[in-house]
Amino acid sequence: MGSTDRWSLLPLDGFADRAPIEFDNGTVFHFLSATPEEAPAKATEAAGGADVRIGGGVDTVREFLEAGLVDRLHVAISPILLGRGKSLWEDLRGLEAGYTVSSEVAESGVVHMTFARD
Question: In 1-118, which ranges are E strands?
Fold first, then answer.
């Protein structure tokens, strides 16, 4: 992998044999069936020192947060009310205690929150 490559991991059960998705900007999404505890080590080894990011939906993010494996989290909150869906924050009371939290509002109204481990 070149020095500008980024290695993204999407831990999805049952999709470990899915081919990676490559983008023109050098980002590659790799798919892996692994527990949150196993995934970072596998991704770091496979990335050969490149930046590793974990992607996924609410369930994946919550699993990594609950396991204490998130150093930096960026959440974009759109100003719409859907009325249903999964809550990212449920049962994560006090999460902010171990992070520096910053936020900014884009012109579109989207709130960007960043949690960075202290």
Answer: 6-11, 21-22, 27-32, 52-54, 72-77, 99-105, 111-117
In b/e form, how buried is each residue of 93-116, taking b as 16+ CB within 10 angstroms?
eebeeebeeeeeeeeeeeeeeebe
1 in Cβ contact with 22 (< 8 Å)? no
Q: Contact, 67 vs 38, CB < 8 A? A: no
Tokens (6 digits) for 24: 């023109």
In which order are the strands placed within the sheet that holds 6-11? 21-22, 27-32, 6-11, 52-54
The pTM of this model reads 0.72
How far are the Cα atoms of 2, 55, 81, 115 from residue 73, in angstroms, in the given order? 25, 10, 22, 5
The percent of residues in the chain predicted with pLDDT above 90, rounded, is: 17
